[in-house]
Write a structure and sequence with these properties.
The chain is built from 8 helices and no strands. By secondary structure, it is mainly alpha-helical. It folds into 2 domains: 77 residues, Rna Polymerase Sigma Factor, Chain: A (Orthogonal Bundle); 69 residues, Arc Repressor Mutant, subunit A (Orthogonal Bundle), CATH 1.10.10. α1 crosses α6 and α7 crosses α8. The longest helix has 26 residues. The chain is globular, with a radius of gyration of 17 Å.
Length: 174
C-alpha cells in the first residue's frame, strides 16, 4: 500500500477503533469475540482500503463489514462451544449502574440478530436510518420496522424487570 493511503487508513482506524469495538461488543456481548470481530473487520478494510476510501459513506461501509463479520461468527458452529467447566471471573470496575447495564445487555442479547444489529447501530452507534440500512444492506423501511420491534421488546423486558430468555439461536452459559 502506498504510504499516503496507509497513513489515511491508520488515521481512520485510530479515530474509530473505540466506537467499532463498542459496536462489536454490543452485538456479541463478549469482549474477546468483539476483539476478533473488530480485527477481522480492520483486516478486510485494510485489504480493500483503496476502494473503501473512495466510498461515499465510509463509516457505513465499515459498519457493514463489521456486521457481516459478526454474522459470520454466529454461523460457525464452534461459536457456541464453551471451553472449560466454568466461566472466567472477569471483575468489572465499580459502577453505580452495573445491574442496569447487565439487565440492558441481557435484554439486548435476547433480541433476534436482525433487531439487535439495527438497535445497536441506530442507538449505540448513532447511525441514521439510511446509514443503518446501508450498513446492513437492507431498506430504510426494514430498519424502521426492525427498530420498532426491537425497542418494543426491550421496553417490555426492562419494564417487566424480569430475567429475559436468550433469543433462539443465542448462546446461553450456565
Amino acid at each position: 500500500m502506498r504510504p499516503d493511503l496507509e497513513r489515511e487508513y491508520v488515521e481512520y482506524v485510530t479515530a474509530r477503533l473505540p466506537r467499532l469495538h463498542r459496536t462489536a461488543y454490543l452485538l456479541c456481548a463478549d469482549t474477546f469475540q468483539a476483539d476478533d470481530i473488530v480485527q477481522a473487520t480492520l483486516t478486510a478494510l485494510y485489504l480493500n482500503w483503496k476502494r473503501a476510501a473512495g466510498a461515499e459513506n465510509l463509516d457505513g461501509y465499515v459498519h457493514r463489514i463489521l456486521v457481516r463479520r459478526y454474522l459470520d461468527e454466529r454461523r460457525r458452529g464452534w461459536s457456541r462451544v464453551l471451553l472449560g467447566d466454568r466461566l472466567p471471573d472477569l471483575s468489572a470496575p465499580a459502577d453505580h449502574g452495573v445491574e442496569e447495564r447487565d439487565t440492558l445487555l441481557t435484554a439486548l442479547r435476547a433480541l433476534p440478530k436482525g433487531q439487535r444489529a439495527v438497535v445497536v447501530l441506530r442507538y449505540f452507534g448513532d447511525l441514521s436510518v439510511e446509514a443503518t440500512a446501508e450498513a446492513l444492506g437492507c431498506s430504510a423501511g426494514n430498519v424502521k420496522s426492525q427498530c420498532s420491534r426491537g425497542l418494543a421488546a426491550l421496553r417490555e423486558a426492562l419494564d417487566a424487570g424480569r430475567p429475559v430468555p436468550v433469543a433462539q439461536g443465542g448462546r446461553t452459559r450456565s
